[in-house]
């Protein structure tokens, strides 16, 4: 049976629309024991460190599963029974990190900010002063619940000042928003294949300070999610995974990395995403549809919009009408207001966003 070409663009925070050449890279099989395949893995690992500007002090580890598997792998590997982590949350994915930590039985402090508010460094420092037992700080960079681009740098600086290990969930930002993992220092950065690097789902990855990762030997109470053990196996066996790896996804990711470089690197991709976002915001505002966040807090990854108050509006209707026009969007995830979300990352370009806006205009709920 013939598989049809993509009938729509995925305007989501991932999985997202990929290029034909990324998909075509999956059209052959690989042996996980073969040196040809393991060399691909090593190329990917070094490329990720270079993208982060980590230098020789950092390493990268690939981990099977969704991005959440890699978040959990970092927590299992970093945290000891007597550790205490401070999780800073203003959305669903910060809450998810806190839930994982709570199930591990380690010490946990959670600072919760509203979904439309930046984490306050003064409150964070006050918490560190009051809870000297805190050993780690974790937070999300781009909270796709709302599209919030959290200002992680002041929190990372506090982690350095107070001698805490800083963990950043950069799932939906790494590769699409420029950052330097050393300035300020991020000890463990977590992301996924199917986000801004524009690969397909199947694995996540962690960029880690080598010295700190070395100290984590024996911490994990999970065999499958032992990041240290995965790292040691990849190091000693030159790209070999402990268990069966998603070979097709890995090859597609290498192609995606090559296409990122051809586009001009992270800065060029960031500019494209920003342009996509500006066109979307302008078009929706012209129809009276307001973004949930203020402009200074908005990431170029995904935007949450207030649902129109028109009694004829329903997300389901909007979703299916846009799908018929060739676009898939996301339902809202904001707890305090009815919203829907539209992503602007992936193999999506300004002309695509112009077409989307024209499609929304045709619906006329409002």
From TrEMBL:
<keyword id="KW-0670">Pyruvate</keyword>
<dbReference type="InterPro" id="IPR015424">
    <property type="entry name" value="PyrdxlP-dep_Trfase"/>
</dbReference>
<keyword id="KW-0663">Pyridoxal phosphate</keyword>
<comment type="similarity">
    <text>Belongs to the class-V pyridoxal-phosphate-dependent aminotransferase family. PhnW subfamily.</text>
</comment>
<dbReference type="GO" id="GO:0047304">
    <property type="term" value="F:2-aminoethylphosphonate-pyruvate transaminase activity"/>
</dbReference>
<dbReference type="Pfam" id="PF00266">
    <property type="entry name" value="Aminotran_5"/>
</dbReference>
<dbReference type="InterPro" id="IPR015422">
    <property type="entry name" value="PyrdxlP-dep_Trfase_small"/>
</dbReference>
<feature type="modified residue" description="N6-(pyridoxal phosphate)lysine">
    <location>
        <position position="195"/>
    </location>
</feature>
<dbReference type="InterPro" id="IPR000192">
    <property type="entry name" value="Aminotrans_V_dom"/>
</dbReference>
<protein>
    <recommendedName>
        <fullName>2-aminoethylphosphonate--pyruvate transaminase</fullName>
        <ecNumber>2.6.1.37</ecNumber>
    </recommendedName>
</protein>
<dbReference type="InterPro" id="IPR015421">
    <property type="entry name" value="PyrdxlP-dep_Trfase_major"/>
</dbReference>
<feature type="domain" description="Aminotransferase class V">
    <location>
        <begin position="23"/>
        <end position="340"/>
    </location>
</feature>
<keyword id="KW-0808">Transferase</keyword>
<dbReference type="InterPro" id="IPR012703">
    <property type="entry name" value="NH2EtPonate_pyrv_transaminase"/>
</dbReference>
<keyword id="KW-0032">Aminotransferase</keyword>
<comment type="function">
    <text>Involved in phosphonate degradation.</text>
</comment>
<dbReference type="InterPro" id="IPR024169">
    <property type="entry name" value="SP_NH2Trfase/AEP_transaminase"/>
</dbReference>
<comment type="subunit">
    <text>Homodimer.</text>
</comment>
């Amino acid at each position: 049976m013939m598989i049809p070409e993509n009938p729509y663009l995925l305007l989501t925070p991932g999985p997202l629309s990929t290029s034909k050449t990324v998909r075509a890279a999956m059209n052959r099989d690989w042996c996980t024991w073969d040196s040809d395949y393991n060399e691909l893995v090593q190329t990917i690992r070094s490329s990720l460190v270079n993208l982060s500007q980590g230098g020789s002090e950092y390493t990268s580890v690939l981990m099977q599963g969704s991005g959440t598997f890699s978040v959990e792998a970092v927590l299992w590997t970093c945290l000891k029974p007597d550790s205490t982590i401070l999780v800073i949350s203003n959305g669903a994915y910060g809450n998810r990190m806190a839930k994982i930590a709570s199930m591990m039985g380690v010490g946990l402090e959670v600072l919760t900010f509203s979904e439309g508010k930046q984490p306050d460094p003064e409150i964070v420092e006050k918490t560190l002063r009051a809870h000297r037992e805190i050993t780690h700080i974790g937070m999300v960079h781009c909270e796709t619940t709302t599209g919030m681009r959290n200002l992680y740098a002041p929190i990372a600086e506090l982690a350095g000042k107070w001698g805490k290990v800083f963990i950043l969930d950069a799932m939906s930002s790494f590769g699409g928003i420029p950052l330097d993992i050393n300035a300020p220092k991020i000890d463990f950065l977590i992301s996924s294949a199917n986000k801004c690097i524009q690969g397909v789902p199947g694995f996540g990855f962690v960029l880690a300070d080598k010295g700190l990762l070395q100290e984590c030997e024996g911490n994990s109470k999970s065999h499958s999610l032992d990041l240290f053990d995965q790292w040691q196996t990849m190091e000693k066996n030159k790209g070999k995974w402990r268990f069966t790896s998603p070979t097709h996804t890995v090859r597609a990711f290498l192609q995606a990395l090559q296409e990122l470089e051809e586009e001009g690197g992270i800065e060029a991709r960031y500019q494209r995403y920003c342009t996509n976002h500006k066109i979307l915001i302008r078009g929706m505002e012209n129809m009276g549809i307001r973004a949930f966040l203020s402009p200074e807090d908005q990431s170029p990854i995904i935007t949450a919009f207030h649902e129109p108050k028109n009694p004829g509006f329903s997300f389901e209707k909007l979703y299916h009408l846009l799908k018929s026009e060739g676009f898939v969007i996301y339902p809202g995830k904001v707890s305090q207001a009815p919203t829907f979300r539209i992503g602007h990352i992936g193999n999506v370009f300004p002309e695509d966003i112009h077409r989307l806006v024209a499609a929304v205009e045709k619906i006329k709920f409002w």
